[in-house]
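Predict the 3D structure for this chain.
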Amino acid sequence: MKWKDSLLGEILVGRGHVSIDHIIRARHRQIAQPSKRLGECLLEMGFIRPEHLEAAITLQRQGEPNVARET
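Done. Predicted structure below.
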């Protein structure tokens, strides 16, 4: 799958790092705290690890590298 220009949540769900419920819960936090980015909320809530966020941002910017899916 090509990830370039995908939404961060789509990438994280697609790679199996979070569930859609996690994204929804983090979005609620983001709405309550508009200065926060989705990735920050997911990290603070303990739903992802920093390396998952970094990899997802890289995919969002550059596309799919040859990286195995982590669980």
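Residues 20-32 form the longest helix (13 residues).
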